[in-house]
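Q: what does this look like with adenosine-5'-diphosphate bound?
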Amino acid sequence: MAIRRPPETTSDLLIEVRDLTKVYGTGDMAVYALRGVNLEVRRGEFVAIMGPSGSGKSTFMHLLGCLDRPTSGSYRLAGQEVSRLSADELATIRSRQIGFVFQSFNLLARTSALENVELPMLYAGISRDTRTARAKELLESVGLGNRLDHKPSELSGGQQQRVAIARALANGVPLLMADEPTGNLDSKSSAEIMTLFRRLNDQHGLTVLVVTHDMNTAAWSKRVVTFRDGRILSDQPVAEAVPEAVRAVVDETHAAVKEGVRV
Ligand code: ADP
């Protein structure tokens, strides 16, 4: 597969968060969305972020994704302190470090799968021939080599999400962040998408962070961090966080995929 390995660095830690807080609004209107969060994620981990609505998951992912800045605390991404950077500096870091996958796919509607995947490379200034070749390779690697010219409306939800994953990988980033990536998919397409994340994690060393409220989705991860009221309530290996019966389904699918059976 055409996934570039993350660059070698001296540190194994990709994410280091210390006492992170986020307050929206001021005075009587202040909402304490994050109340002092500490988390470390090593390169190559696969983490699910869970928790009830309003517990701070999205706020936390926005901060980790360099889409917003914290009120206080420290966030080091790939060894660099990013919590006080300007919006432009954050945009540069994002394009080098992070690929995003969303619940609603967020593909350009009138644009082919190939062009959708090429787009981040266009912004990164990569030449036309190189980006077309790489976009083709990426789409082939997610099983869509025969859908290059299809527009999103001509693809199923699962296929659209695979295009979105190929797009997220276009710039060779080390970190994939997904917000409810299976929220709009049926159970079979959800399993396909999670299988793909797992393959990218197992075989290509990508670090994967997935926000989900769905145990079936979290079961594909290797570590489950649960938020409650703006704090981390628990941080467990998946075997402790997800019931065995739910994990059994994942293990069966995963074993079938390893043997080369497509799901
Ligand atoms: P979750 O993703 O777990 O549902 P959020 O991070 O969206 O939680 O929200 C955490 C808290 O912060 C909630 O009380 C929410 O209402 C509040 N919040 C989130 N975003 C904003 C915002 N832009 N302005 C004001 N309050 C917000």
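The pocket of adenosine-5'-diphosphate is lined by residues 24-25, 31, 33, 51, 53-59 (CB under 6 Å). The chain is about 35% helix and 25% strand.
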